[in-house]
Amino acid sequence: MRVQYGNWRSHLPKGAHAVVTGASQGLGRAFAEELARGGVNLHLVALPDADLERVGQALQALYDVSGETHACDMTAEGAVEALCETILSRGHDLAMLINNAGVGYNSTFVDSTVRQNETCILLNNLATVKMTRLLLPALLEADQAHILNVASMAAMFPMPYMPVYAPSKSFVLSFSQSLRQELRGTSVGVSALCPNGIRTSADAREKIASHGKVGDLFCLDADEVAQAGLRGLVRDRAVIVPGALNRAIASVSRIAPRWLVYSVVGAFWGKTAKKPTRSLTAPAPSPVQ
Length: 289
Ligand SMILES: NC(=O)c1ccc[n+]([C@@H]2O[C@H](COP(=O)([O-])OP(=O)(O)OC[C@H]3O[C@@H](n4cnc5c(N)ncnc54)[C@H](OP(=O)(O)O)[C@@H]3O)[C@@H](O)[C@H]2O)c1
Known about the structure:
By secondary structure, the chain is of the alpha/beta class. Helices cover 48% and strands 14% of the residues. The mean pLDDT is 93. The strands form two sheets. It has a seven-stranded parallel beta sheet with strand order 3-2-1-4-5-6-9, with helices on both faces. Residues 22-28, 46-47, 49, 51, 72-75, 100-104, 123, 150, 152, 195, 197-198, 200-201, 204 line the site of NADP nicotinamide-adenine-dinucleotide phosphate.
């Protein structure tokens, strides 16, 4: 069925449950609010802190949906397995999984720590794969269900100064597209969301501001990205790029010569990268932190 621009909210699985990771702030919180507005019950996941509880309570009070919160460090060994066991033990109808939790850093690789790189891969990739594998059987039981994996426009090309984040998002994009093909003909759709900059945390806003007018032109607010993601999801789009200008960049980047992509990306992200505190030929500090 063709879903019209204005009526996508009525196609959300009202009364069923959605799992949203990274839901205490930023884009995950915006997803949670859009879903609650559409009458979808929630399992909200984030690191253990007070914000998550507050978000769950506020959404429950405002929209009369259930908003169960799960404080979980998804990078800890066994944590995703225990989380999914708890969610499944509730016996709810699951109709949506939004793998949104993700982290990255913007610096030269030599200035990154092993811990930063490990966390990026464990959260952006391994946790996404585990959540999807463990919840897929329950999603397949629904009449209609959807998995939305939050990648990034960084998934579309290698990025100097984001040397691990960009490949981690390429993994999410490729994983989503592969799984989508495998699940054709089932009740479960899979989409990848590839936003450009989003005005979320103080750090994200600071980086956007440091790119001046150009940054502002291509960046969106979290609620705009969440709406674009859910609109694309109910229309069963394979890849969702919010914003007309960003869709243009995504198309051009596919055909542009690599040297051009590297020099534009390098100039853009090199400007905001954490600067090396020493010359690259000086003895390196311990990379393990
Ligand atoms: N912001 C951008 O410009 C941008 C652009 C493109 C794509 N994205 C992607 O969009 C997604 C959301 O980004 P955002 O800017 O909204 O992020 P954010 O504001 O930093 O929020 C991250 C969320 O993930 C949670 N989280 C972090 N580490 C976790 C862990 N180990 N276990 C469980 N939860 C964890 C955080 O919980 P706490 O609040 O408890 O810390 C928080 O809820 C990410 O996948 C990101 O890569 C962002």
